[in-house]
Write a structure and sequence with these properties.
Distance between the termini: 74 Å
Family: Belongs to the helicase family. RecQ subfamily.
CATH topology of the largest domain: Rossmann fold
Helix content: 40-55%
Number of helices: 24
Bound molecules: zinc ion
CATH class of the largest domain: Alpha Beta
Domain Helicase C-terminal: 245-423
EC number: 5.6.2.4
GO cellular component, one term: chromosome
CATH superfamily of the largest domain: P-loop containing nucleotide triphosphate hydrolases
Shape: globular
Keywords: ATP-binding, DNA-binding, Helicase, Hydrolase, Isomerase, Nucleotide-binding, Nucleus
Length: 448
């Protein structure tokens, strides 16, 4: 691969020479490569601001096309600077499942990408350090792993590096303090990366508080903020306290499966623990008996089951087959029971309902998880079951506690009140909004 000229380095450092029009024209070429006919205003602003030499903080809802904001960067820099050797973006991401989906997607669009991991062969490392891949994904831990230090410091990688991306950036706040401490060290990398390499942080949801924490921790300087309210007006929120047995609580869903079979609302049930997943799964299995598979009495293979578990214990091939069956509009699988960590890997169209069996501890996560439903804009449901024990834990955010226990304020308003971008004016009316608004709804349907 040809070595870059001095001019190219200088271009990366001073991007002032670029005209907005030429960036937009180049961006259109990238959009076409990714199969977009047009780009949304927010996508354009995020990319243009970044290329103009700013740190950028992107908060766009799930399914909006957020990833394109960085998927396009290496290609875009190549076009803009007429590169002879391609540009590289380094992407920090929390989960292997997410990264492998993205690598596959990128490859299908003709962009080379790789995931750095523990125990990778030397050969892979030297390919990464040589700048062979346009997009290099890594969990934060690998960036600070001794075996990888040399790779991420290599000058041929640095020469090509045009962007440092932190995807799912709310993890910086959520996990930086304890669970995955390396998240809190990312800001320190600024000193080690070439000076013209800016940061882009992306997340589907971040309250003002989370956003400020992430910006501070990553050492972002005056980032351009691209924010769209994560509120989805097509989502109906409801909250119930767990008072009955699992069987009683899920009776309506079990009945729905019995009656509607493969027309049952496509549902993800998020559990807090693996044990909860098992309990729920076994409840569905024993309650449904021969009706557990579709058509009734079909053999007990994953592809015929209407309910499946999606957890760390599944083999990769079973995970793939669950995702494929769940994504298929005519698939038999209607309900996937997942631990929260694994549920993040389920990003299928057509999900109509999210059930939380146990309250998540923070609002950002809750909004993000419920955002998996109704991506097509059609009506969808977010049901949460909590116990007094769930909300008694010390790390539970007050805002989430209030969301569960409040009996008067609209769920949507209590959920989004700490989001700058939220506007109550766009709220759906009464019975389309939430269980509490429905009680006082005066629409003709509710009144008579
Ligand atoms: Zn409401
Ligand atoms: Zn109504």
């Amino acid at each position: 691969m040809a070595k870059r000229s001095r001019d190219e380095y200088e271009c990366r450092d001073k991007k002032t020479a670029l005209q907005k029009e030429s960036i937009e024209a180049a961006l259109l070429i990238c959009a076409t490569q990714f199969g977009y006919e047009t780009l949304k205003e927010e996508q354009k602003r995020a990319v243009v601001s970044f290329v103009e030499g700013n740190d950028v903080f992107v908060t766009l809802p799930t399914g909006f096309g957020k990833s394109f904001c960085y998927f396009c960067l290496p290609l875009l820099f190549d076009i803009l600077y007429n590169k002879t050797s391609w540009s590289v973006a380094l992407v920090v991401s929390p989960l292997n499942a997410l990264m492998s989906d993205q690598v596959q997607l990128l490859k299908s669009k003709g962009i080379s990408a790789v995931i750095c991991g523990y125990g990778d062969k030397e050969e892979n490392k030297s390919l990464v350090s040589g700048g062979t891949f346009q997009i290099v994904f890594t969990p934060p831990e690998i960036l600070f792993d001794k075996e990888w230090t040399e790779v991420f410091r290599s000058s041929s990688l640095h020469d090509r590096l045009v962007a440092f991306i932190v995807d799912e950036a709310h993890c910086v706040k959520k996990w930086g303090k304890d669970f995955r401490k390396d998240y809190s060290k990312l800001g320190g990398l600024r000193g080690l990366l070439p000076s013209g390499v800016h940061f882009m942080a992306l997340t589907a949801t971040a309250s003002n508080f989370t956003r400020n924490e992430v910006i501070r921790s990553l050492g972002m300087t005056k980032p351009v903020m691209i924010i769209r309210s994560p509120d989805k007006p097509n989502l109906y929120y409801s909250v119930m306290e767990k008072t009955e047995s699992i069987e009683d609580t899920f009776k309506p869903v079990i009945e729905e499966l019995r009656k509607l079979r493969h027309n049952t609302k496509k549902t993800i049930i998020f559990c807090r623990t693996y044990q909860d997943c098992c309990d729920l799964y076994l409840t569905f299995r024993s309650s449904l008996g021969v009706e557990f598979t579709n058509p009734i009495g079909a053999p007990d293979y994953s592809i015929f089951r209407m309910v499946e578990m999606f957890t760390a214990v599944n083999t990769p091939s079973l995970k793939q087959s669950i995702l494929a069956s769940f994504s298929n509009p005519r698939g038999h699988m209607r309900i996937v029971i997942a631990t929260v960590a694994f549920g993040m890997g389920i990003d299928c169209a057509g999900v109509r309902r999210i059930i939380h069996w146990g309250a998540p501890s923070d609002v950002d996560c809750y909004i993000q998880e419920t955002g998996r439903a109704g991506r097509d804009g059609d009506r969808a449901f977010a049901d949460l079951y909590y116990s007094k024990r769930d909300i008694g834990v010390t790390f539970m955010e007050d805002c989430m506690k209030n969301y569960c226990t409040n009996r008067s304020m609209c769920r949507r308003e209590s959920l989004f009140q700490s989001f700058q971008s939220y506007s109550p004016l766009q709220k759906p009316i009464g019975c389309l909004c939430c269980d509490l608004c429905a009680i006082v709804c005066e629409c003709s349907f509710c009144k008579f």
